[in-house]
Design brief:
This protein is α/β, with parallel strands linked by helices. A 5-stranded parallel β-sheet has the order 2-1-3-4-5, sandwiched between helices. The structure holds flavin mononucleotide. Flavin mononucleotide binds next to helix 1.
């Protein structure tokens, strides 16, 4: 069976980001034929259409677009900033969606998990992200929905999750994501 490449995108640039920790944790729960790679968004400058119109997109944009094109599916872990997604994550979506007609995300399956140190599970960010994904044509896993609140309390100092209920839930989420990706990549002839 061909290897399935998963791009893990986490919406925070913070060194000790819980979104990143969560993404890396879920990556380890995926089946053996899945290769998950965390994609660094910190080098992406703000999207400006002038550079695409002038035919001189930056090297960083080009490399990022290539990397997104090389992936079979995406896991998005989003924090919530002011009830929406972060500028860093939105910028990444925008950069790889252009130039017009060359949407690198097109047709590749994805899943979203939202995390916050607050109590509400970053529902606002989770669903704002879903809105963009309709237009980007990233078919999303619907269930289980994943909203992780009080995230700071879930990780111990070695970056592991100890709460059994959360561990079980994340394994269920990872399994459902893997099934979703297999179904869609098979349909696409992979
Ligand atoms: C600018 C800003 C806005 C925030 N807004 C929200 C918010 O609307 N809802 C929420 O639950 N947490 C909010 N937070 C708290 C973040 O969820 C928390 O800092 C989280 O840990 C960020 O993710 P990270 O750990 O991956 O960096 C906000 C944090 C920042 C810096």
């Amino acid at each position: 069976m061909a290897n399935i490449n998963i791009g893990v995108l986490t919406g925070s640039l913070r060194k000790e980001s819980y979104s990143k920790k969560t993404g890396l944790y879920i990556a380890k729960l995926l089946p053996e034929d899945f290769t998950a790679k965390w994609i660094d968004l910190s080098g992406l400058t703000m999207y400006n259409q002038d550079y695409d119109d002038g035919g001189n997109p930056s090297r960083e944009w080009q490399a990022f677009r290539q990397e997104i094109k090389s992936m079979d599916a995406f896991l998005f872990v989003t924090p919530e900033y002011n009830r929406s997604i972060t500028a860093a994550l939105k910028n990444a979506l925008d950069v790889a969606s252009r130039p017009f007609g060359q949407n690198a995300w097109n047709g590749k399956p994805g899943a979203i998990i939202s995390v916050t140190q607050g109590k509400l599970g970053a529902f606002g960010a989770n669903h704002h992200l879903r809105q963009s994904m309709v237009f980007l044509n990233i078919p999303l896993l619907q269930q289980p929905e994943a909203y992780l609140g009080n995230i700071a309390e879930l990780f111990n100092e070695s970056g592991e999750i100890t709460d059994l209920g959360t561990k079980d839930f994340l394994q269920t989420f990872a399994d459902a994501f893997a099934r979703w990706v297999r179904t869609l990549t098979k349909a696409a002839g992979k």
